[in-house]
Amino acid sequence: EAQVTQNPRYLITVTGKKLTVTCSQNMNHEYMSWYRQDPGLGLRQIYYSMNVEVTDKGDVPEGYKVSRKEKRNFPLILESPSPNQTSLYFCASSRRGAWDAFFGQGTRLTVV
Amino acid sequence: GQQLNQSPQSMFIQEGEDVSMNCTSSSIFNTWLWYKQDPGEGPVLLIALYKAGELTSNGRLTAQFGITRKDSFLNISASIPSDVGIYFCAGPSFPTSGTYKYIFGTGTRLKVLA
After folding, report:
1. CB contact residues (below 8 A), chain B span 8-67, against chain A
2. By CB neighbour count within 10 A (0-12 exposed, 13-18 middle, 19+ buried), where does B44 fall?
3. Rounded to 5 degrees, what are φ and ψ at B82?
4. Residue B59 half-sphere exposure, CB side, CA atoms within 13 Å?
5. At residue A56, what are phi and psi to the nearest 5 degrees?
6. Residue A92 has what pLDDT?
7. Which chain A residues contact residue B4 at CB under 8 A?
8. What is the per-residue pLDDT across A25-76, written as a single tens digit (0 to 9) for each?
């Protein structure tokens, strides 16, 4: 089954404790991206990757890192999480140039 | 940067009613996308529009690409309870040659009363 898998689905952590949210897709898609969803603000792109070893900043990259060492994986790293990073996070993938992005089920992160 | 504003922000409707929502941009888009997010899930693509003036249907859903290329509209006919969710418009932006990113709207939350 074609899918984008994020882990964990829920995470509560403390300020400053490094964490990684994993994202994996099994569709051989070149394009992968991370979003955060906040009430009233919609979905905002954090980082995106056009292919392996190619990553670019989206609209809200501050406080986040990503890496794309393999085509299927695109982890999101929060080196020092802060409460303003409490949000619902989505990973998505698509074929390069195809606009139908496939989204994961989301990771709800709470930073206290 | 580019922004997409959706209206209404939320709406309650009775089952069987038609629904209209729109998305406006301060700049031109060459592609418009409409996604739906069910509660507890990630967004799923409903309709993609590629040409100004284009009208495309997907079952009870109809979307239009505005002729100014700065807006798009989504209509749902004869709403049913499973239409509940958040509807997002989106479009690609091209910050540099060979790269693109997605801009999503603020969303319209739809609640259907049986």
Report:
1. 9, 31, 33, 40-45, 48
2. middle
3. -75, 0
4. 7
5. -140, 155
6. 97
7. 42
8. 999 999 999 999 998 888 999 999 999 999 999 999 999 999 999 999 999 9
